[in-house]
Amino acid sequence: MREYLPVLIVGGIIGMFALVFLIAYLVARRKNVLENRERNMPDSEIIRRLLAYAKPYKWQFVLVFFVMLLSIGYEVISPLLVGHIEETVVGDFEMSYLLTVVGGYVGILLVSLVCTYIQAMVLQKVGQKILSAMREDVFTHIESLSHAQLNDIPVGKLVTRVSNDPNAISFMFTNIIVTLAKNVMVIFGVLAAMLMLNYMLTLMVLCFVPFVVLFTIIFRKFSRSVHLRVNDATTDLNTYLSENLSGIKITQIFNQEQRKMSDFLQRSRTLQRAKRSRMFVFGIFQPMVYMLYISSVLCLLYLGGKGYIGNWTVFGQTVSSGIIVSFYMYISKFFNPIQQLAEQFDMLQRSFAAAEKIFTVMDMVPEVVDTPNARELTDIKGEIEFKDVWFAYNPGEWVLKGVSFHISPRQTVAFVGSTGSGKSTILSLICRNYDIQKGQILIDGVDIKDIKIASLRKHFGQMLQDVFLFSGSIRSNIVLREEFPEEDVKKACEYVNADKFIYRLDNGLDEVVRERGNNFSAGQRQLLSFARTLLHKPAVMILDEATANIDTETELLIQDSLEKMKNIGTMLIVAHRLSTIQHADNIILLSHGEILEQGTHQELLKQKGRYYNLYTLQYNKEQLQRA
Ligand SMILES: Nc1ncnc2c1ncn2[C@@H]1O[C@H](COP(=O)(O)OP(=O)(O)OP(=O)(O)O)[C@@H](O)[C@H]1O
């Protein structure tokens, strides 16, 4: 009967674990933790693409692998040495032997510490480099996407792709992969050492391993699902936050705080629930593996202790006190990596999920790209021609229907028409923000599809109604990234009458511009965008409703600077206020995507058509307002 006792103990423990595990699995299913969500990209492809980022640092990884082997030596040898120390202390005590063994222990401990330090330093450096390479690639790729593609992705999602996701991948390179490899090697190293010491006690420990492995596999399935849920909920919350923080003033004006708050709470609770599910999965797994560990230690102490005290054999093998001490340490060194393995697989999954999201964005083929034969356009005169242009944002919903016009170099042309008639769309198409479906757009007689996009856009200066200023200074917003002499910057400001308000500021051109330029008025922002455009001397200037935000006094200043700017190049203006474009060389009136009338102000008035009606309507209104 005594011979069967160990078998009974181990069998009983295994049975108990099977039961606990079954209950936990059923509860998890009921709680709907396991959600069937798989990735679309195969792991092999994700790995191949991630390896491409690691390839430039292969020698650093070889070094890390080498020092890792040395630190593994500590994990495997240290329990043997402690066992020896124990036997020396309780057995035939010999000071010199004890000192040699303790010295050996301290020696390998120091080597292990140095190795861990080198490993951490090298990996951190490499990780940061991979992180910035990846961020750069995603950011550059996002920049290459067309307006239509960017319109389809919420800004919050893009922010997550550029900031959070590369972090997860960098963590994978700096931590997960190496620890995973180390753990696998430690498991095999410790196993070999245990087998050498006492194979019967080793078999006892191994009885618990199938459970740890089974837990790991099932935990992986659960954790992958909960991580995806947490990721999705985080992205959703970020997207909502980024959009609503940008529009928070509108929320306040329309008294929508309560509604927005409840939308926010709903998203926040979804994230909370997803995180709770994750905690639940971890909460089951970790204690169960810990219980396995404790059970195996108890088995060791019972079987090993009995064998030692009663000189009793464990399945025919004798046990010394040193072996029990070594095994006690080995069990923890054996179970820890196995337990960590599951966590690391989980983190690896998280990194793969992040990588997949990044690669999905990177796989979006930019819709507006250079054709193979596209050429550079160094200097342009500024001649623009639309030949029977048809364009739709959404297939079949034509926004421009057979639009044709010709603009000679240095002409000033105004586009007028009711809201939604297609004025801004025309300006957007000239810069090739979108590709047209039918017809041709020519600059200096060259189809814009045959011109390199960067060299095409270089010749345009845009002044839009909603001027975007970057955080920085007034100067950095005017010069952007290029170098300009101080004199030129000042002249540009004076030319567009922006100097009047700039030099009243404490720091003049170095005055700080806060996010989106919210410490400047809309009119001031427009004057700055004028100065920015003027300084870069584009061949074609585009003003989309640029004078809409400016008070009458500033408008006069603007009119004055616009008149001066006319001499610089071709000027295209979209304006609702017809009084601002009376001096244009040509006025094109659009209606529902078609040109209804065109000519000079006087010509159009003579026609007594739609322009005449619009003008008299606005003129009478202004007269009434003045009266
Ligand atoms: N990104 C877009 N996606 C889908 N449809 C769009 C997009 N931008 C504009 N539209 C549609 O195209 C049409 C023309 O818009 P556009 O902005 O060119 O008009 P507009 O004449 O400049 O109007 P407004 O005077 O109000 O600025 C409108 O019906 C608008 O709804």
A few lines on this structure:
One of its GO terms (molecular function) is ATP hydrolysis activity. It contains 21 helices and twelve strands.
Strand content: 5-15%
Second rung of CATH, namely the architecture of the largest domain:
Up-down Bundle
Bound molecules: adenosine-5'-triphosphate
> Total number of helical segments?
21
Number of domains: 3
Alpha carbon gyration radius: 36 Å
Distance between the termini: 114 Å
Q: What share of the residues lie within helices?
A: 55-70%
Structural class: alpha/beta
Averaged pLDDT, please? 81
Give a structural overview.
The protein is of the alpha/beta class and 627 residues long. It folds into three domains: 2-362, ABC transporter transmembrane region fold (Up-down Bundle), CATH 1.20.1560; 380-459 and 541-549 and 570-627, 3-Layer(aba) Sandwich (Rossmann fold), CATH 3.40.50.300; 465-537, Rossmann fold. It contains 21 helices and twelve strands. It has helices at residues 5-30, 43-54, 58-90, 95-144, 147-152, 155-162, 164-197, 199-206, 209-246, 248-253, 257-309, 321-362, 423-430, 453-457, 474-479, 486-495, 499-502, 522-536, 552-565, 601-607, 610-626; strands at residues 384-392, 398-407, 412-417, 438-443, 446-447, 460-464, 472-473, 512-513, 540-544, 570-574, 586-591, 594-599. The strands form three sheets. The protein has a six-stranded mixed sheet with strand order 6-9-10-3-11-12, sandwiched between helices. The longest helix is centred in the middle third of the chain and has 53 residues, at 257-309. Residues 33-37 have low confidence and may be disordered. The structure holds adenosine-5'-triphosphate (ATP). Residues 151, 393, 399, 417, 419-425 line the site of adenosine-5'-triphosphate. The site of adenosine-5'-triphosphate has 11 residues, from helix 13. This is ABC transporter ATP-binding protein. It is found in: Cell membrane. GO terms for molecular function: ABC-type oligopeptide transporter activity; ATP binding; ATP hydrolysis activity.
